[in-house]
Amino acid sequence: MARIPTMTGSRRLLARLRDVMAGAGTAQERLDHIVTVIASDFVAEVCSVYVLRAGEVLELFAATGLATEAVHNTRLSIGEGLIGRIAVQARPLALADAQSHPDYAYRPETGEEIFQSLAGVPILRGGRVTGVLAVQNKTGRSYTEEEVETLETIAMVIAELIASSNLLSEEELHAVDGVSLMPVTMEGVRLNGGLAIGKAVRHERRIQILKLVADDPEAEQQRLDRAVAEMHGAIDEMLEAKDVAEGGEHRDILETYKMFAEDAGWLARINEAIINGLTAEAAVEKVRNDTRARFRNLTDRYLLERLHDFDDLAHRLLQHLVGATETAETNNLPENIILVARNMGPAELLDYDRSHLRGLVLEEGSATTHVAIVARALDIPVVGKMPEILDKVERNDTVIVDGDNAEVHIRPAEDTHQAFIDTLTARAQRMATYASLRDVPAETKDGIRVALHINAGLLADMQNLPETGADGIGLYRTEIPFMDSHDFPDVDRQAQIYERVIEQSEGKPVVFRTLDIGGDKGLPYWDTAGDENPAMGWRAVRVSLDRPVLMRHQLRALIRAAQGTDLSVMFPMITEIAEFDAARKLLDLELRRAEKKGRTPIKSLKVGTMLEVPALAYQMPALLKRVDFISIGSNDLFQFLFASDRGSARIADRYDPLSPAALNFLGQLVEQCDAAQTPISLCGEIAGRPLDAMALVGLGFRTLSMAPSSIGPVKTMIRSLSAGDLKRYLDSLQDVAEHSLREKLREFAIDHGVMI
Ligand code: PEP
Ligand code: MG
To answer: Which pLDDT value is given to residue 223?
Structure first.
């Protein structure tokens, strides 16, 4: 049951504070003014504001009734005294006899020994404690619940003042955790390797609240009622949607969600904040902050889930109230950004300045989510499956993303931090050595030339071609420009992109892979979801063949872009010959169309396929008659060969690409292609790992395509290898029944001085 607050004075007080906030003067002057207004309104002898500064220190920032020298001098650590206790617990405290409380700590410089009673509330923003607001009286005053409530409402206004003024530097403002500044190390799933150090930026759906104090509380209440009704309607609509109405787990989840949306306590708390003088959106935000703060120390998963529900609902309600579009925070970003998100779409990632983006951490996410694919294209380490990391990391916290070991270090201790800086420096030195190899060929000691290509997907990737000295682009993932777009790029737009890719490749070959979208690589503007196993669902060429117009437009754009020059096209996820034929037919139709239009013909056309579905390997004779080249997509191939989800942490190490099964499979493909003189390459992740790449060269691969950062290490390996010795060694291991040949190959490398 909601209480009906009797203290309409809080509204009057808020209105006065609004005038102070809008008035002239520095932030400090306004804060000084605010404490006097509160003290007089509360008939309190003291009103003080403590602000949490870096290093877990609560500093007295403004006070009336305490010794002036104490302001900016009195500092309490978190947990120290009653003020520290309020900050630690993120809860209000009202004591008629404060001095007899066990946590009472007397600070002589303040002269506060004469004040007997105290009421204090945390200043919360984004569910975090950013300070404490307190009033004190000489007499043993019993503060009422309504008075405490009013202080909480006012604290929200002060929180905004602290956040939006220059009271604290940008760095300091966000570097405080409020409750814990302890280093935290968390383990997740590797979505992309590499190492990065930077400052945390929380990717949050933020709605800007421009007005905190209401002019007309009744109108605010009506706005809230309208928004709540709209929100309920929208949730009902979701429940009525055909697939949900039929029942199942997602219906249960939505039903629970609906129950929370109708939670009388939650709505009453919002109403109460409006009665106290806040605008409807500020009231929703206040209750959200209170809830977050109160739940934050809980470890119970069930309750944390509930917190997520309320958080989500608050966000929805704010959207109905403000109707605002969501914006990623893009102002005042640190130099080195480590983005921390619950989950995000690829377009959202690309909203951030790529030149400052160093790493990505996701609460959810798997290797195949498209944001991970885009992050890979950007060559930044990504760690996923880190539930609750957003509750542990604050903006501007130092974060180390160790993608190779799937670890994230938050606020690392000094020595850990230094150790990682040393590793990064050593890496940079190694990169410089690799750069010096740019113009030397990837040739083994016994004279075998291996072509090293890079995988790309963004125009920004093209600069890697001259920088690494790679031989070409072995895989251009055309879906990435589709993801980095708000709508389907039309033929002209696509042609423009492909033209620039060809132009920037400066005559080096580029293999364009047709769209690999669908399943979980959905596009923000096109719903392809719905499969239970998206990796094996409606994706890639399966989508293209079912939506031939889409495919034809893409092929048209490629043909247009490649007029008078060479073009290599490759189809993804081909499973049977008939699919290749059907895709090829569409290509031929477009070639004829271009001819009829009188376009300059392509100089030389090569048409190939990805081999990433095992079934295709059993149709090699027919396939080899049709294709100009084959590229093995080992990421998908191995997940299907071993029935082992490439995004699953639990089985990530269970099957090894260097296992006898995988090597035999690949070896036979190479033999068949060699016999037919059809070029074969491999463009999955393993091509970029020196030891794995060594095995591939031993199997007979002469073209590999990899992330640009792998070119140097793989070239170094190749130049120190004798391919003949390795082939002989591999031949001697024909009948090995071990889980993996990895260790044996590593020993070979060490014994033969191969730099892996
Ligand atoms: C692969 O499957 O190995 C591949 C290169 O394609 P993608 O990673 O884009 O699925
Ligand atoms: Mg693939």
So the answer is: 94
Q: Tokens for 430, please give them.
A: 């190694």
pTM metric for this prediction: 0.60
Label the pairing between strands 604-611 and 117-125. unpaired
Identify which of 192, 482, 610, 636 to mutate to test ligand 1's pocket (most ligand atoms within 8 A of the CB).
Answer: 636
241 three-class SS: coil
Residue 183, φ and ψ in degrees, nearest 5: -65, 145
> Which residues 6+ apart lie within 8 Å of 724 measured at CB?
446
Which residues sit with their C-beta closer than 6 Å to ligand 1?
475, 477, 516, 612, 633-636, 683-684
Residues 6 or more apart in contact with residue 215 via CB below 8 angstroms: none
Name the closest-CA residue to atom 1, ligand 1: 633
Going from N- to C-terminal start, the domains of the chain cover 9-178, 184-204+328-408, 217-322, 453-611, 654-756
Q: Which residue, judged by its Cα, is nearest atom 4 of ligand 1?
A: 633
Chain centroid offset of residue 368 CA: 13
Confidence at residue 3, expressed as pLDDT on a 0 to 100 scale: 35
Distance 185 CA to ligand 1 centre (A): 30
Cα separations in angstroms, 621 against 605, 673, 675, 676 = 21, 9, 11, 9
Residue 291 CA: distances (Å) to CA of 126, 225, 246, 249, 441: 10, 21, 33, 27, 61
Residues of the chain falling short of pLDDT 70: 1-8, 126-127, 170-182, 205-206, 241-254, 295-308, 324-331, 345-347, 365-370, 484, 519-520, 524, 649
In this structure, the residue with its CA closest to atom 10 of ligand 1 is 636
pLDDT attached to residue 181: 55
Which atom, in ligand 1's list, is nearest to the CA of 635? 3
For ligand 2, the distance from its centroid to the CA atom of residue 620, given in whole angstroms, is 19
Domain 453-611, CATH number (from 3.20.20.60, 3.40.50.150, 3.90.950.10, 3.60.15.10) = 3.20.20.60
Token couple for 68 = 């002036």
Q: How far is ligand 1, taken at its centre, from the CA of residue 498, in Å?
A: 20
Listed residue (116, 112, 152, 106) closest to 131, CA to CA = 152
Query: How many angstroms separate the alpha carbon of residue 638 from the centre of ligand 2?
Result: 10
